[in-house]
Design a protein that fits this description.
Largest sheet: 11 strands, antiparallel
Helix content: 10-25%
Strand content: 25-35%
Shape: globular
Low-confidence stretches: 1-23
Radius of gyration: 26 Å
């Protein structure tokens, strides 16, 4: 988000700092523009993705300095060891044009709209070159350590070297434009348009500055596939757009120098990679559409394959129940089966279901097997040995949500994700362990694991929200994107009038 650095203590230490604000998420011409992380580090390379030589316009945001550079660029920090400063937050006030502090922006949901809120951070009149110095001072003065915050410097110097050409020195933040798709940091994906380079916490951060709709056009093919039926692409577009807006409201990256990351932590964004006319049509046909649950943005989470039924967010993440994420039946044959019961879960895992018309990745998620040594399993859960495994609970999708490991000690995992990781990154926690087992009166399943633990399962991912394999199947059978969304997110409605402004 945007920062404006007016801290007097820093001005004393660093008299050459310019006073300006960084570009950030904003509403422009009826569109929401975002900063999406592409790369970070003390060195970043920008390379042309084709035979034509790249032409990049590089401008200093705080001055009229601008250059047209040709060829590949290698950008490096010249003073990385001096760029981390820490301050002690004194108070937070509403932002005003005359505010003399640090401008911080964050997203909020008000009156069924997404707004960008502004607040003024007032710091104590002292800064520190390292966090330990700030912590020591906080302890000595009785200031809570949670008031310690990093203060990124906006005018750090970077060296830009062109291939076979001269070196240039610029002060960040930099605005970079390229009409030619670029490879960032050697990653063979094409990005073009506007970029922002800034320094955050002693390293450079390169972001793609683009409209939300262009971001969605760089997400959906990487989540559901570029050859998916049009109605499936539309479904994914609405889900991805809704998920993006809900992620913005978490403000996870407000102190990192960008709005969304480009990995599964947010959503997989790869720019123009695999972009085609069907994707552009899907984005255009659903332009601005998001899902609302009541008057709030819906949590439109999604996953690869449920395996038969989706699960509730309450079961999987131990959160509050959400009416639109209570779990639904995805494969009709599983309707009457109680997958939370061990015997029925095992029987369904052994049931063959149709894979006609599916792509290879879809088929791989429908049914799978995996083995892991007992020793590796013990190591993964932090034990030296395991003598017994107990499945304490399964969710409505059959996913194991509570599992205990007994041996050199006892470890209990109540996270679907951690259970998957324990078994060597299993596709899902909807699996059973091969071999003999016993059940106690409370339904707990006890297994004595052999030297090699073999599991068999269905589905891929956490199992909450939209099932992508189910979405593809429904689209191939004539369902519209609205039908599909209402199935996986019941009690939601589509809305396109949700954009607000900065406040």
């Amino acid at each position: 988000m945007r920062y404006q650095y007016l801290i007097k203590a820093l001005l004393c230490l660093l008299p050459l700092i310019l006073l300006c604000s960084l570009p950030a998420a904003e509403y422009r011409n009826g569109q929401l523009y975002l900063e999406v992380l592409l790369s970070s580090g003390t060195q970043i390379s920008l390379e042309t993705s084709g035979s034509a030589q790249a032409e990049l316009t590089v401008s200093e945001q705080a001055s009229p300095i601008s250059r047209l550079l040709r060829g590949n660029l290698n950008i490096s920090l010249t003073n990385a060891d001096k760029l981390a400063f820490w301050g002690l937050l004194s108070r937070v006030e509403p932002w005003a044009d005359h505010s003399d502090g640090v401008l911080r922006e964050y997203f909020a949901w008000e009156d069924s709209t997404l707004v960008i809120k502004r607040e003024n951070l007032i710091f104590e009149g002292i800064t520190f070159a390292g966090i330990e110095g700030a912590r020591k001072y906080a302890r000595e003065t009785g200031i809570p350590e949670n008031q310690i915050q990093n203060i990124p410097l906006i005018n750090s110097t970077v060296r830009v070297k062109t291939t076979g050409g001269p070196e240039y020195y610029f002060e960040t933040p930099l605005l970079i434009h390229s009409a030619t798709p670029l490879f960032i940091g050697g990653v063979k994906l094409g990005y073009s348009g506007d970029f922002i380079l800034k320094t955050i916490n002693g390293k450079m951060v390169l972001t793609h500055f683009l409209p939300l709709e262009e971001y969605i056009a760089g997400v959906i093919q990487n989540e559901i596939g570029s050859t998916a039926p049009l109605e499936a692409l539309k479904t994914q577009a609405v889900a991805a757009r809704t998920h993006a807006v809900s992620l913005l409201l978490y403000n996870r990256h407000k102190n990192d120098g960008y709005d969304l990351c480009n990995s599964t932590h947010c959503q997989v964004y790869k720019g123009e990679h695999l972009l085609n006319e069907s994707i552009l049509e899907a984005v255009s046909a659903t332009r601005g559409e998001v899902l609302l649950a009541g008057d709030r943005i819906a949590d439109a989470t999604y996953h690869s394959s449920c395996g038969g039924k989706t699960d509730s967010s309450e079961n999987i993440w131990n959160g509050s129940p959400l009416p639109h994420l209570m779990g639904v039946t995805c494969i009709e044959a599983a309707e009457s089966i109680d997958l939370s019961k061990e015997n029925q879960a095992r029987r369904w895992i052994e049931t063959n279901t149709s894979t006609q018309g599916m792509s290879s990745w879809e088929k791989a998620s429908v049914s799978w097997q995996k083995s892991i040594s007992r020793q590796a399993l013990a190591r993964n859960v932090g034990l030296s040995s395991i003598s017994r495994i107990v499945i304490n609970k399964r969710g409505s999708s059959g996913r194991i949500t509570d599992m205990s490991f007994h041996g050199s000690g006892t470890v209990r995992l109540t996270s679907e994700y951690k259970i998957r990781q324990a078994f060597g990154s299993a596709k899902s926690s909807f699996f059973y362990i091969r071999g003999a087992y016993s059940m106690d009166k409370n339904g707990g399943v006890s297994i004595t694991p052999p030297a090699t633990v073999s599991i068999k399962g269905k589905g891929s991912g956490h199992g909450v929200g939209m099932c992508q394999v189910g979405t593809l199947d429904r689209a191939r059978n004539g369902a519209t994107y609205r039908d599909i969304l209402s199935h996986y997110y019941p009690e939601t409605r589509i809305c396109s009038d949700w954009m607000g402004h900065a406040r």
